[in-house]
Design brief:
Distance between the termini: 61 Å
CATH architecture of the largest domain: 3-Layer(aba) Sandwich
Radius of gyration: 21 Å
CATH class of the largest domain: Alpha Beta
Number of strands: 9
Pfam family, one: RrnaAD
Helix content: 25-40%
Family: Belongs to the class I-like SAM-binding methyltransferase superfamily. rRNA adenine N(6)-methyltransferase family.
CATH superfamily of the largest domain: Vaccinia Virus protein VP39
Shape: elongated
Low-confidence stretches: 6-11
Organism: Brevibacterium salitolerans
Protein name: Ribosomal RNA adenine methylase transferase N-terminal domain-containing protein
Keywords: Methyltransferase, RNA-binding, S-adenosyl-L-methionine, Transferase
CATH topology of the largest domain: Rossmann fold
Largest sheet: 7 strands, mixed
Number of helices: 11
């Protein structure tokens, strides 16, 4: 195949999914959702072709113009577009894709700041998928997004399930927008700042971190922790979505 104007396979970060059970799992997860589908990074159509069989409106975007052109010829009922996922509008209820591993974080940030989709089913680097799903502890990005999204890790995909084979395994991650947000969307920016202060705050124990970050007496911080089901020995990574909501609600109420 001719070289893309954006570079070869290595420069495009393309690791094509070849693991049949994972392809079937992705399609099954999409089948459980509703509405039009937007596929990111269609490649040679390993996911596009079975997704097209679901009989739903499907748009597939691909950065390699040669692959996009060939896929459009093969699948005339699919809207195949030569486009960059970092700039293309992420519209539609369902987003699905085998994400170029080196673009995982910027694409996730775009998704989590876009309000037009309900479910995202993504193949990412294993470590990224694990962290987003808070396996082994939450991360700043997950904690900042948790009041509006839930994260579920479905599977680990061995590196040999891709061609060319990447140096790390993949992970199948599903992100679902909460129908009832835990925190009003108009509080998103101050909430994100609050979470960042807790994650980056000093103090050793969680009650002291909250004391310093929120500017409240330590005894008050300790009471808030108990109400949220947390202990001073806990770390920010130990806090789940509902506990973050409880902390924010009590501290926001106190400062209002």
């Amino acid at each position: 195949m001719p070289r893309s104007i954006h570079g070869g396979r290595h420069e495009l970060g393309q690791n094509f999914l070849t693991h049949t059970p994972t392809i079937a799992l992705v399609v099954d997860l999409v089948r459980r959702t509703d509405g039009a589908i937007l596929e990111i990074g269609a490649g040679d159509g390993a996911l596009t072709k079975p997704l097209a069989q679901l009989g739903r409106r499907l748009t597939a975007i691909e950065l390699d113009e040669h692959r996009a052109r060939r896929l459009a010829r093969e699948l005339p009922d699919v809207a195949v577009e030569h486009a960059d996922a970092l700039t293309h509008p992420l519209h539609g209820p369902v987003i699905v894709g085998n994400i170029p591993f080196h673009l995982t974080t910027p694409l996730l940030r775009r998704l989590l700041n876009t309000r037009t989709w309900s479910d995202a089913i993504l193949l990412t680097q294993w470590e990224v998928a694990r962290k987003r799903a808070a396996v082994g502890g939450s991360t700043l990005m997950t904690a900042q997004s948790a009041p509006w999204f839930s994260f579920h890790l479905h599977a680990r995909v061995a590196s040999q399930g891709f061609t060319p084979r990447p140096s790390v395994d993949g992970g199948l991650l599903q992100i679902t927008r909460r129908r009832k947000p835990l925190i009003p969307i108009d509080e998103k920016i101050p909430y994100e700042r609050f979470v960042r202060r807790i994650f980056t705050g000093r103090g050793g124990n969680l009650d002291r971190i909250i004391q310093n970050a929120a500017g409240v007496p330590r005894a008050h911080a300790a009471r808030i922790l108990r109400t949220a089901g947390l202990a001073p020995r806990n770390l920010p990574r130990d806090i789940n979505a509902h506990q973050w909501t409880a902390l924010w609600t009590q501290l926001h109420r106190t400062s209002s």
